[in-house]
Amino acid sequence: MGYGKQSQACISDTITTITVTVNYESFFLSPCTYTSNIEIRLSNLSLMTESPGKVCACAFAFGNFYDSVIFIAFVDSGTNNPYQGFAMFNEELASSTAWDNDQPGFGGWAGYIASVVNLGLVATDPVEMVIRAAASASNLLAYQDSLNCVTPAIYDVVPQTSIATDEWVSLTSSLGNTHQKVRGLTTVMSYQIQNTSCFAGLDSAILNNIPVVGIETIEEQVGFSVVPNPFSHEIMVTTGNRQSIILYRIYDLGGNLVRSEDGLNAETLVIDRGNLSGGMYFLELLSEKAVLGRQKIVVQ
After folding, report:
1. pLDDT tens-digit series, residues 40-50
2. Domain ranges in the chain?
3. Which CATH architecture has domain 224-299?
4. Is 156 within 8 Å of 80 (Cβ atoms)?
């Protein structure tokens, strides 16, 4: 996969060829073999030097083939050690319109952002971009083309995935139209079948260790426990020093406050999942006198 323009805040303009590896999980459901979990890994990348305040803006056009993008992140080359993760751009309609203007005919753009300077990303470090997606039971992808199986197959879908990047200065403006391209995945890529444990390990390594966007500090000493974590339905939060919790806040990877509740007075809380989508968040607890701590929580 090649591209002709530098991707200013994201990828070095000295890189001319990007390799693509697709890991996927397959299962048999008569009469076909389908695929569900998907990892698209872009290698041979390095980050550019940028002035403070620059943001890496990324957009993807998955069409209707992926029901869920679980996370997008940079990792150290050859590892699952994460750099900064991409947070979903909260004005999706605006970003989708802007990217459509730049690449008409490739609808379904979704925007993501990640801070670059002073938040974990080091220029010129060799990195890989990991796109973790999944297809639901109602929108399965065939393992391969066959007269007896549904189409499209994974070999048809992944090359249709369009990717673009840009620099972005203002966190309050919509994405513009002058994007620097990283797009057009080719059919020359490596496909590898993996089992469930591979994706569980990948998700755990990245979601449990990815730095947060927009929250400057996370205390190492957390004054409370969370069980279970990861969780699907609810968590029980208990303070370790018998301090009463009067307020909790939950932030997404973009540092946006997605839920809060005050007027509490308890040493133990049960917090249900509610409308939180799958992914990683940060839970913050406050007592009357201080912040008790912040801790990563993962919704499955």
Report:
1. 898 877 766 55
2. 19-207, 224-299
3. Sandwich (2.60)
4. no
